[in-house]
Amino acid sequence: MRLTKLNRWGRKLCFALAAFPVFQATGCDAQSVANLVVSTSLSLASQLNVQVAQLAIAGAQQTLLQAYPGANILQILLGGNRQPFFP
């Protein structure tokens, strides 16, 4: 069991090590690839956080507007009443 896992890891490692000369020839080293992966994942994570926050805020607004339809101040502040001063 252990030898099989070691063999699988060895094969994966061989593919990675075989790519190093190609990376060096093209001016792409492993550190810059790792930095690219980290920066891309951080960017995607921050975009996901913004989207989740916007979704939570929109959900809270909709819940408040539906729960209190007669509260004029909430309707005005949260955008439920588009024309607050013109009946």
Set down the secondary structure blueprint.
Blueprint: H1 2-25, H2 30-67, H3 72-78
Number of domains: 1
- State the helicity in percent bands: over 70%
Beta-strand content estimate: under 5%
Structure summary, number of beta strands: 0
Structural class: mainly alpha
Order of helices and strands: HHH
Main beta-sheet strand count, sense and barrel state: none
Q: How many H/I helices?
A: 3
Overview of the molecule:
The chain has 87 residues and is mainly α. The protein has one domain (2-78). The protein has helices spanning 2-25, 30-67, 72-78. The radius of gyration is 27 Å and the shape is elongated.
Name its key features.
mainly alpha, 0% strand, 3 helices, 87 residues
Summarize the structure.
The protein has 87 residues and is an all-alpha fold.
